[in-house]
């Protein structure tokens, strides 16, 4: 049976073969070398800066979404969240749970974010911007260059959930000035589910 869902996607024979092998004990140089190689590759694929670091979470994409909100943001922040579907709404719920001050940019289902949508929030002292790059619940891919310009002009941290878009759509973390990128093993990486990944810029690392 062929699986054409957005994830978990089918893994290749080579990946499944590796999955059958024993996992090296984590207090060994072999395991350390493996994880450092993983970090190097993720940074390369995300086009992240050399100073960035990668965190591997043994949990779902939502686990990394929450870990990011808990560790990068504080109650002194003032955050904009693009809410165009169920995954944008998930970030809203996470920020509510952790008392992060936030404002929703509420979009109609299936509608993309436009420059006009951002005008009311210009120069309003917002400190962070959260977006699900690909809102898969409605099938909308947001214009990251538009969002990047807005964040740079307003000196805002940019947190990007790229769980469904990483490696499937163009993403240049350094060029966009993104401070956090989140993805998952079960999407375009085509690995088994259970691992989510957070890439942190130097600025995000300082906040953590």
Describe the protein in words.
With 208 residues, this protein is an alpha/beta fold. It has one domain (13-207): Type I PLP-dependent aspartate aminotransferase-like (Major domain) (Aspartate Aminotransferase, domain 2). Helices cover 35% and strands 19% of the residues. It has eight helices and nine strands. It has helices spanning 13-19, 29-46, 61-72, 86-97, 115-118, 144-153, 173-176, 202-207, and strands at 53-57, 79-83, 102-106, 128-132, 134-135, 140-141, 157-161, 180-184, 196-200. A seven-stranded mixed β-sheet has the order 1-9-8-7-4-2-3, with helices on both faces. Strands 5-6 form a two-stranded antiparallel ribbon. β7 (157-161), α7 (173-176) and β8 (180-184) form a beta-alpha-beta unit. The longest helix is centred in the first third of the chain and has 18 residues, at 29-46. It is globular and about 55 Å long. The termini are far apart.
Q: Profile the largest sheet.
A: 7 strands, mixed
Give the C-level CATH assignment. Answer: Alpha Beta
Structural class: alpha/beta
CATH fold topology: Aspartate Aminotransferase, domain 2
Approximately how much helix is present in the residues?
A: 25-40%
Q: How many structural domains does the protein architecture include? A: 1
The total of beta strands comes to 9
Rg result: 17 Å
- Measured by DSSP, the beta-strand proportion falls in 15-25%
CATH superfamily: Type I PLP-dependent aspartate aminotransferase-like (Major domain)
**What series of H and E elements makes up the topology?**
HHEHEHEHEEEHEHEEH
């Amino acid at each position: 049976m062929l699986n054409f869902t957005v994830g978990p996607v089918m893994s290749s024979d080579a990946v499944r073969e590796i999955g059958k092998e024993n996992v090296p004990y984590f207090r060994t140089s072999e395991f350390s070398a493996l994880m450092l190689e993983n970090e190097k590759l993720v940074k390369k694929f995300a086009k992240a800066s050399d100073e960035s670091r990668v965190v591997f979470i043994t949990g779902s994409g939502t686990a990394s979404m929450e870990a990011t909100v808990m560790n990068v943001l504080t109650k002194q922040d003032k955050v904009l969240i693009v809410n165009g579907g169920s995954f944008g709404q998930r970030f809203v719920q996470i920020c509510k749970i952790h008392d992060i001050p936030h404002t929703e940019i509420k979009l109609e289902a299936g509608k993309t974010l436009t420059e006009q949508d951002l005008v009311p929030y210009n120069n309003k002292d917002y400190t962070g911007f959260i977006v699900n790059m690909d809102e898969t619940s409605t099938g909308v891919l947001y214009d990251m260059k538009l969002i990047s310009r807005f964040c740079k002009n307003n000196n805002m941290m940019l947190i990007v959930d790229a769980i469904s878009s990483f490696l499937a759509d163009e993403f240049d973390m350094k060029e966009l000035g993104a401070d956090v990128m989140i993805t998952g093993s079960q999407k375009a990486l085509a690995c088994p589910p259970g691992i989510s990944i957070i890439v942190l810029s130097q600025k995000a690392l300082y906040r953590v």
